[in-house]
Amino acid sequence: MLRRQATDQERQAIWETLLRHSNRGVLAYGEIAQAAEEFGFHRSAVSRMWKRGSAALGTGVAADVNSHKHERGRKKVDRVSIWLFVSIQSVQSRTTSRTIQDIIQEVEHAWEIMTAETLNKTFLTLQLVMKEIMNYEGRNDYKWLTFTTIS
Fold it and tell me: Is the pLDDT of residue 139 over 70?
């Protein structure tokens, strides 16, 4: 029975089994094939797990045989919250707030000087971004829209 993916617990169990059967980090002939048959994985997959663990032991670090597939690809960024933070920062004045009262006054001042047109554009843009996120079912591969592309 051959499977495609091993869980982290299975990887650790395979590594510990091979480590018990090794003599100072060297496996006898056929140990990898025997472990592969015992755990139901392909011999080359078990061999890769052994090599990854052995390489870590050679550097004096605890062996990490866990899957690293979750570390691949583009890292997810919450663009909406970053956009909101940047828009709030651009509205606030650049003075240094030393107390909570100063912060409250700065926010109140920012709301006072904000025009209705700017607020309207800001919330329309946010609405368009949220609509695109829903159209793409939460994925982050949507195109950024501007008012010129919509009109």
Answer: yes
